[in-house]
Write a structure and sequence with these properties.
The chain contains 21 helices and 27 strands. A 9-stranded mixed β-sheet has the order 3-2-12-11-13-14-15-16-17, sandwiched between helices. A 5-stranded antiparallel β-sheet has the order 1-18-19-21-22. A 5-stranded parallel β-sheet has the order 5-4-6-7-8, sandwiched between helices. A hairpin with a 7-residue loop joins strand 25 and strand 26. Helix 4 crosses helix 5. The protein is globular and about 75 Å long.
């Protein structure tokens, strides 16, 4: 077991953090958003008045303390404004992923008994109107955009125009501050990779303690910082970080879609951002996607970055020759990459899944700091994080203040601390399965602790593959290694109860088409291209080269090259980009069976 040093983490509420940030912020910019290509600013004082008005409108709708309010929206200033207003009313925000179909929205809205749901756009309203037919308890749909009038729908502007008088500021604050640390602040329905979603009840203190602990360790920010907010606020990772950013006085710049991230970075020049590994993988692959002389240049720059990082963490001083090469690589490659990311990024935080160590090493060597952390929705979310002063690539860092970590006999990571959820909404049995009588939460992840308390994640417990020969294989490290190839965008290991493992590979289609053209395969029809024997041979060569360091029984013996990316719409990935293994296996069952029906490779155990 490893416990973080004893920490004085006073209990508190998100409402207290909100009022504290408003008092310090004043006329400083609190929020930024893209208004048709022009970035607009909202000062703290203006944001506060907006929150007051939304709270008054909710009171006019009959919202009571303890009610649940749905919030179906991409990242935008209104998300945070509505969230704070709901909490100031003593109610609970129920975030809803904007990518969810109507059927899944209906389950959550019904289970949480939400009478009021805010939506961002006409597209989201259409889904809610479909839900309303089967959920008569849904009384009010409020849309943030100004859209044409629709029966049963009001715009946020109309709702706020109906507020003729505001309660006195003192009475508004007094009511808001009635919240107690162990009151529920939000119910977050986990998308999950199997089964129906469960509502995670997080208290004010669950999130308050995580904000305070994070600000004391990794997230050292203040009024001079701009934080880019683009991971879904429906997930607790971005949401908790935004609470921390707002509390510290940083400006939050909202990005509504992942394809707008790089243009937004160039426009607002953020200093802090959080992302999942898939984002870093895409940037890394883009850097390596050149051909000819450009490819030789970036491969050389990658090698120099890795050597530089190795020297830095070994504690030695780089040679004069390495310094000269690194300086040249910086001028030719690294500086251009940093400029694309805005040119003033102090650090990224990575979470949600393990980040491939070589990708982290490359970015470090290129002058871009990525602090990898760990946590789950049920832990608000952060339990561990690397810091600029205490950084070990390949780990998710040490426990944040107030947190204890223990490894169970079967390798499962157990967590105890003030950030562990209150439980699952209306599901005491599921709560009892994951939190024992001593308060230890079973994460479902497999990992190990080193002597200094740094945690290393091996895999998801349910994702461990057990071959027909009884060999245990943790697929995550192998998948991460394979994704280092510029030809591979995503990878999934298959092999449970099979004689040997195989790998499903999603190509980087742009790079595959370039490679195919250089090798006489003149086609942009990817469905035809992935069936070419030469393409499969190339992917098996790439996978073999990147898995040499693994045990023979762990290496994928064959590769299935897929014709498309995994999709949320097809149910193959969750909104936070976790792959649903069971669904993918079902969708490609025919191809998998055909692969195993081929002659077996000679070297499997």
């Amino acid at each position: 077991m490893f416990a973080a040093e004893p920490a004085d983490l006073p209990e508190g509420t998100l409402v207290e953090l909100f009022f504290g940030a408003i008092a310090k912020g004043g006329s400083n910019v609190a929020q930024m958003y893209d208004d048709g290509g022009t970035w607009r600013s909202i000062e703290h004082d203006a944001m506060y008045q907006r929150v007051r008005r939304i709270a008054a409108a909710l009171e006019n709708l009959g919202l009571s303390r303890g009610d649940n309010v749905g919030l179906l929206s991409e990242n935008r200033p209104e998300w945070a404004q509505i969230d704070y207003a709901v909490m100031c009313m003593g109610a609970h925000t129920v975030p809803l992923y904007p990518t969810l179909p109507a059927s899944q929205l209906g389950f959550i809205i019904g289970h949480a008994a939400t009478r009021i749901v805010f939506a961002s756009t006409a597209e989201q309203v259409a889904k809610l109107l479909e839900v309303k037919a089967s959920q008569p308890g849904l009384e009010h749909i409020i849309v943030c955009d100004d859209i044409p009038a629709q029966s049963g729908v009001r715009t946020l502007r109309e709702l706020l125009d109906g507020v003729t008088t505001l309660p006195a500021d003192e009475s508004f604050r007094a009511r808001a501050l009635e919240a107690r640390p162990h009151d529920i602040a939000t119910i977050i329905y986990t998308s999950g990779t199997t089964g129906e979603p469960k509502g995670v009840m997080l208290t004010h203190n669950n999130l308050h303690s995580n904000v305070v602990a994070s600000l004391r360790t990794a997230v050292d920010t203040g009024p001079s910082d701009i934080a880019l907010s683009f991971l879904p606020l429906s997930h607790v990772f971005q949401r908790m970080v935004d609470y921390a950013m707002f509390s510290s006085g940083a400006t939050i710049a909202y990005v509504s879609a992942i394809d707008k991230v790089l243009p937004s970075m160039a426009a607002v020049r953020p200093s802090v951002a959080v992302a999942v590994p898939r984002v870093y993988e895409k940037i890394y692959t883009a850097v390596l996607s050149g051909t000819g002389p450009k490819r030789k240049l970036v491969l050389w720059a990658r090698r120099i970055a890795l050597e530089w990082t190795e020297q830095a963490f070994a504690g030695g001083k780089p040679s004069s020759w390495l310094k000269a090469q690194h300086s040249l690589a910086d001028r030719l490659v690294y500086s251009k990459l940093r400029k694309k990311l805005g040119g003033r990024m102090r650090f990224f935080v990575s979470g949600g899944a393990p980040l491939a160590p070589d990708i982290a090493r490359f970015f470090y060597g290129a002058g871009i700091l990525i602090l990898e952390g760990y946590g789950l929705t049920e832990t608000s979310p952060v339990t561990n994080v690397n810091t600029p002063a205490q950084l070990r690539i390949g780990t998710v860092g040490r426990p944040v203040p107030g947190t204890e970590i223990r490894i169970a006999e079967d390798g499962e990571i157990l967590v105890r601390g003030p950030q562990v959820m209150k439980g699952y909404f209306k599901n005491e049995a599921a709560t009892a399965e994951v939190i024992d009588s001593e308060g230890w939460f079973r994460t479902g992840d497999i990992g190990s602790l080193d002597a200094d308390g740094y945690l290393r994640i091996t895999d998801r417990k349910k994702d461990l593959l057990v071959t027909a020969g009884g060999k245990n294989i943790a697929p995550q490290p192998i998948q991460n290694a394979v994704k280092g190839s510029r030809l591979i965008s995503e990878a999934l290991m298959i092999g449970d109860r099979r004689a040997y493992p195989v790998l499903l590979a999603v190509p980087n289609f742009d790079n595959l088409i370039i490679w195919a053209g250089l090798h006489g395969l003149q086609t942009t029809d990817v469905e035809a291209l992935v069936k070419e024997p030469a393409v499969r041979a190339k992917y098996e060569e790439e996978v073999a080269a990147r898995t040499e360091s693994f045990a023979r029984y762990e290496r994928p013996k064959k590769v299935i090259v897929l014709p498309r990316e995994f999709s949320i719409d097809a149910g193959e990935i969750t909104p936070k980009l976790s792959i649903k293994r069971r669904v993918v296996e079902e969708h490609y069952a025919q191809e998998i069976e055909a692969m195993y029906a081929e002659p077996s490779p000679p070297d499997h155990d």
